[in-house]
Amino acid sequence: MRLARLLEQAHLAASGNTDAQVTGFAIDHRKVAPGTVFGAFQGARVDGEDFIAEAVAAGAIAVVTRPEAQVSGAVHIADSLPRRAFARLAAQFFAPFPRHIVAVTGTNGKTSTVEMTRQIWRMAGERAASIGTLGVTTPDESVSTGLTTPDIVTFLANLSGLAREGVTHIAYEASSHGLSQYRNEGVRPQAVAFTNLSRDHLDYHAGMDDYFAAKMRLFDEVAADGGTAVVWCGNEAGDWSARAVEHANNRGLTVMTVGERGETIRLVDREATQLGQQLTIEYAGETRKLSLPLIGAYQAANALTAVGLALASGTEASRVWDAVSRLQPVRGRLERAVITQSGAPIYVDYAHTPDAIEAAIAALRPHVDDRLITVVGAGGDRDHGKRGPMGRVAAEGSDIVIVTDDNPRGEDPATIRAAVMAGAGDGAREIGDRRAAIAAAIAEAGPGDIVLIAGKGHELGQIIGSGESMTVLPFDDVEIARECAAEGVTL
Ligand SMILES: CC(=O)N[C@H]1[C@@H](OP(=O)(O)OP(=O)(O)OC[C@H]2O[C@@H](n3ccc(=O)[nH]c3=O)[C@H](O)[C@@H]2O)O[C@H](CO)[C@@H](O)[C@@H]1O[C@H](C)C(=O)N[C@@H](C)C(=O)N[C@H](CCC(=O)O)C(=O)O
Ligand SMILES: Nc1ncnc2c1ncn2[C@@H]1O[C@H](COP(=O)(O)OP(=O)(O)OP(=O)(O)O)[C@@H](O)[C@H]1O
Ligand SMILES: N[C@H](CCC[C@H](N)C(=O)O)C(=O)O
Ligand SMILES: [Mg+2]
């Protein structure tokens, strides 16, 4: 496709000869080939503008970058928001995309909600896929991208490939990093959802308002004109939900509120059953009972938000409601890894924020007869301020807390543990080695007890070191829990 045509379709201007054929797009100069359009962006680690000359030498025919940047030997597509301009141009190249696209933002519940939306669509007979922390999940396979919201080129290329495979419905996760870096621009979701907001990523965002503003770009700018916004409004939902509704109204989106305080899909009652829960719902003037085969208020919230998205995408309501009772557990979200020889169930959950730990504990509590034993740790090179609160909520909700390591990355693991321990208090035990911590929890658990292993969920490795010296040691909480339970470890 000719550059001039792409520019015209994206409503962008550039000086110079725009006759050349475009062969691809890249944001990393090492991926530039002859005919590539290169996006040169100032990053958190390095300045992409420093690689412009190398990109041109490698065959870049155009560079999307700030007006102030120096480009010679290629067309300079100058824009004060180069990431956005690049995305818009790339979208013209990679189109067409699947017809039905929905997106989810919020601190917790994005992966679960996109995965449940994908499942609902599939059960309703649609060709559906999801993109998020678990990777790109299609009817046939799941491939990791390494990030929750992949970079813009990976994102658009995947959407395009999926469309070619016949996928018509996509649900993707919009992380705050992804939104502030314009990683999923260029396609306009017909429905967007907001799950909740609580402390996370304050190493990257200046404060909670800034973090929320990054998330609200999904409502303010990314969503399709005239689209729908699904907002979780549960009993626990604070001001952030109300503010998300305000953003949706200001943008002219159709608002669907969901939850105990929701108006579109009202959760009237929730009763735990042995293997899941029964939900009583009011929707479109009718009351219906749903049996959800998953435990915990948080999973009900995500399932109903997914219902909202599926309805907003035009899937037939009766098929959507039918699918709820057949939802499968999401990998690493309250996943029961094993039941120990003494009869204690061991759950693995991806809770890595204070709010998520609270939600996971609240989900398990009704099922605990005797003691809840929680294994918890916080990631390195991530928000330091969440560590103490993570320890505190774990200690408040559990009978025994074991503080351990979770992806120390470039930091000293003992320092991270000390911050979690400071919140967890004197009663908590500290066992740095994660396998030993899991073994200790399992050895401790007797009949009537439940063990919660928080933080890693579906992850398959322990990340140690950073940059050149980064290594990922194979580590799967579910597998380790099974091994420890099989060994019948004693201390
Ligand atoms: C802080 C952050 O979000 N960083 C991501 C971001 O980096 P950046 O734009 O700041 O890039 P940079 O590394 O400073 O480089 C600047 C530019 O120069 C280019 N470059 C760089 C080196 C080179 O040799 N040549 C070159 O052209 C880069 O491609 C980039 O365009 O864009 C990069 C390319 O897409 C990502 O790999 C990188 O993710 C890092 C590895 C990361 O750890 N990200 C995490 C924090 C993240 O994004 N997490 C979110 C949220 C998860 C959640 O919600 O919990 C996610 O969506 O996964
Ligand atoms: N609706 C919710 N409310 C509160 N906590 C939740 C909710 N949904 C999930 N959680 C908690 O957050 C953890 C992560 O859930 P999930 O992976 O769905 O979130 P996410 O938003 O995709 O996270 P990430 O930002 O890391 O991609 C779960 O294991 C659970 O402990
Ligand atoms: N997407 C999250 C994952 C956190 C998972 C936890 N295991 C950790 O390493 O902190 C993040 O990058 O903050
Ligand atoms: Mg996720």
From TrEMBL:
Residues annotated to bind ATP: 106-112
GO MF, one annotated term: magnesium ion binding
Subcellular location: Cytoplasm
Positions of the Mur ligase C-terminal domain: 332-457
Binding positions (meso-2,6-diaminopimelate): 382, 406-409, 455, 459
Domain of life from the UniProt record: Bacteria
Post-translational events: Carboxylation is probably crucial for Mg(2+) binding and, consequently, for the gamma-phosphate positioning of ATP.
Reactions this protein catalyses: UDP-N-acetyl-alpha-D-muramoyl-L-alanyl-D-glutamate + meso-2,6-diaminopimelate + ATP = UDP-N-acetyl-alpha-D-muramoyl-L-alanyl-gamma-D-glutamyl-meso-2,6-diaminopimelate + ADP + phosphate + H(+)
Family the entry assigns: Belongs to the MurCDEF family. MurE subfamily.
Official protein name in the record: UDP-N-acetylmuramoyl-L-alanyl-D-glutamate--2,6-diaminopimelate ligase
Source taxonomy: Bacteria, Pseudomonadati, Pseudomonadota, Alphaproteobacteria, Sphingomonadales
Name of the coding gene: murE
